[in-house]
Specification:
Chain A is an alpha/beta fold. Chain A has 10 helices and 10 strands. Helices cover 39% and strands 23% of the residues of chain A. In chain B, helix 2 (26-49) packs across helix 11 (256-275), helix 3 packs antiparallel against helix 4 and helix 10 packs parallel to helix 13. The interface between A and B is medium-sized, with 35 and 24 residues. Chain A: Keywords: ATP-binding, Nucleotide-binding, Transport.
Chain lengths: 264, 313
């Protein structure tokens, strides 16, 4: 397996707070890498740096062997990295279908000058996309009329619509009702595996991490405190106590749930 | 509202304007002016879709009007002057746009205002070239090579203004429904998302800005050839404010709004000025207040609600 995204020596501080203090992290092509860590650790900041939204004070990031630091977010998108957001970023005055179609059109451009956004080509693909995410029944709702879970899904769908090679998701299941969480993750996994997307996702729910991730990186005090397969990381008492502050998931599913809430 | 309904409404509207101009001859002039302003207001509407308000768009209107005034002494041909002046305004819009689309909201609005006032000062101060506040009188222009009587030229300008209004109305309607127009509306709600989809919000806004300058330029050219007199007042900030006023009065929800608003505005202005000479600005102010408070969709929004009620009744 080859390295798709590689961060070396990333450093960024806000005031005195070191969100990244020498981060080295490789994302392998085809894997699902989870990033866990306490609130305010710097997980979102990492996604912001990898997508050109924030510039680290030191270090480098390469994607597919090419340096990407200093590129504008839209250049990085064009290079194949898409992201979803911790707080869904939807076009609130547009319908869900229009949101999806606009993302599809953005990828498919250049645009025929006056052809409508909802022309057959974009509409069909948007409907198909929404269907895969179970959002088709909500297609004609305005984005600001959705509940949080649906907003979250629509947000991810828009990133998937860009057909990225690498998808960075910031807490994909936060806001999704716990009863639906696993179903959502199943769907998402299927969509991403089908299209052979490499995924990095920040997650607070350890059950989701256990089921979804190939590897887990633990982010704390600006460093990668531990990195490895979920069975190993999620049962490492030191990691759990020092970094997440929860009891091990292990076989006791009950404690796992409580732990997930404690970390949110 | 379906496409065919809108086409029908546009044609009815055009017929009404012509009928009015025919029945009350001096309204022909008023209608031409209204449509010319409506074209500029259509540009304001475009920018409003992106959540941006320009308080300086009279710049483009005045620029084209002066371009026509200067050009008329060289080539006094309507069908040459109009497109050249409009293209000149669009070019100016491109140059200014490259700068102002970097800003949003109050900064965008005020920068536009500032630049229009710079142009105003230039027009006012360089007396040797522009004749200052006296302005420039235009010689009569030919129409497709024909020298027309005043009467015929008046009709020609009205028909030209109508055709431009119908053409740009249809164009902007399609534009707004296209990915460009939808991305433009996306600037208002979530510009960062556009960037993370690979779209430059600035470029999307720039395209709309240039288009708005082009339309204001068409309006300015028609205005100049209809009034045959241009003065720096065309570029004064109140003229820009008037365009924003009309946009809100007419309603930003549809391409009908600007023209409905402009016709209502000009008629109110003419009649109110005749009835209560000193108080017509007050009347306009009250009308604007009422529209903002009770009919945020403007006249077009009110009209459409009435139509819908009649249909469902
Ligand atoms: N642009 C910024 N300017 C100033 N401070 C920032 C900025 N971005 C992040 N921070 C701060 O850096 C720290 C790390 O933030 P970040 O959002 O990366 O945490 P996180 O790990 O994603 O946390 P959470 O789990 O709560 O989402 C926080 O204290 C945050 O307030
Ligand atoms: Mg975060």
């Amino acid at each position: 397996m080859s390295v798709l995204l590689s961060a070396r020596g990333l450093r960024i501080a806000f005031g005195g707070l070191k969100a990244a203090d020498g981060i080295d992290l490789d994302v392998m092509e085809g894997e699902f890498l989870a990033i866990i860590g306490p609130n305010g650790a710097g997980k979102t900041t990492f996604i912001n740096m990898a997508t050109g939204y924030l510039r680290p004070q030191a270090g480098s990031i390469t994607y597919d062997g090419q340096p990407i630091l200093g590129l504008k977010p839209r250049r990085i998108v064009k290079a194949g990295i898409a992201r979803s957001f911790q707080l869904p970023q939807l076009f609130t005055e547009h319908t869900v279908l229009e949101n999806a179609a606009l993302a599809i059109a953005a990828r498919a451009g250049p645009w025929a000058p006056l052809a409508p956004l909802l022309q057959r080509r974009f509409r069909a693909e948007a409907e198909e996309l929404l269907d895969r995410f179970g959002l088709l029944p909500l297609a004609d709702r305005r984005a600001d009329a959705l509940n949080e879970g649906a907003r979250k899904l629509a947000d991810i769908a828009m990133a998937v619509a860009l057909k990225p090679r690498l998808l960075l998701m910031d807490e994909p299941t936060s806001g999704v009702a716990s009863a639906e969480k696993m179903a959502v993750v199943e769907t998402l996994t299927r969509v991403l595996r089908d299209s052979r997307v490499t995924a990095v996702f920040v997650e607070h729910d350890m059950e989701v991490v256990a089921r979804f991730a190939d590897r887990v990186a633990v982010w704390g005090q600006g460093k990668i405190m531990a990195l490895g397969p979920p069975q190993q990381i999620l049962n490492d008492p030191a990691v759990l106590r020092d970094v997440i502050g929860v009891a091990p998931v292990g076989d006791g599913a009950g404690t796992g749930k409580e732990g997930a809430h404690a970390a949110t | 509202m379906s496409r065919s309904t809108e086409i029908l409404l546009a044609l009815i509207g055009a017929a009404l304007v012509l009928a009015l101009a025919w029945a009350v001859p001096w309204l022909r002039f008023v209608m031409t002016i209204a449509l010319a302003k409506g074209l500029a207001v259509l540009g304001i509407l475009l920018l409003l879709r992106a959540g941006q308000v320009s308080f300086g768009h009279a710049l483009y209107l005045a620029f084209a009007a002066y371009a026509v005034a200067f050009g008329a002494s060289v080539v006094p041909e309507t069908l040459v002057l109009l497109p050249l002046a409009a293209l000149g305004a669009a070019l100016l819009g491109l140059v200014v746009g490259l700068f102002v689309v970097r800003y949003r909201e109050i900064f965008f609005g005020m920068l536009n205002l500032a630049l229009s006032m710079v142009f105003y000062s230039v027009l006012e101060k360089f007396y040797a070239i522009t004749h200052g506040t006296d302005g420039i009188r235009l010689p009569p222009t030919t129409f497709a090579g024909q020298t027309l009587s005043n009467e015929a030229q008046g009709w020609a300008m009205l028909v030209l203004a109508l055709l431009l209004s119908l053409g740009f109305g249809a164009l902007i309607r399609a534009y707004l429904a296209s990915p460009m127009g939808q991305a433009l509306a996306g600037i208002k709600t979530r510009e960062t998302r556009l960037e993370f989809m690979g779209i430059s919000g600035r470029r999307v806004l720039l395209a709309a800005y240039v288009l708005s300058a082009l339309m204001a330029g068409c309006g300015g050219a028609v205005l100049a050839m209809t009034t045959r007199h241009v003065t720096p007042a065309l570029a004064y900030w109140t003229a820009s404010g008037e365009l924003v006023f009309i946009a809100i009065l007419g309603g930003a929800g549809s391409v009908f709004g600007p023209f409905l608003g402009a016709v209502a505005y000009e008629l109110t202005r003419v009649y109110a000025a005749a009835l209560v000479a000193d108080a017509w600005q007050m009347i306009l102010g009250l009308v604007l207040l009422l529209v903002i408070l009770f009919a945020p969709g403007g006249l077009w929004g009110m009209g459409r609600a009435l139509l819908a009620r009649r249909r469902s009744a």
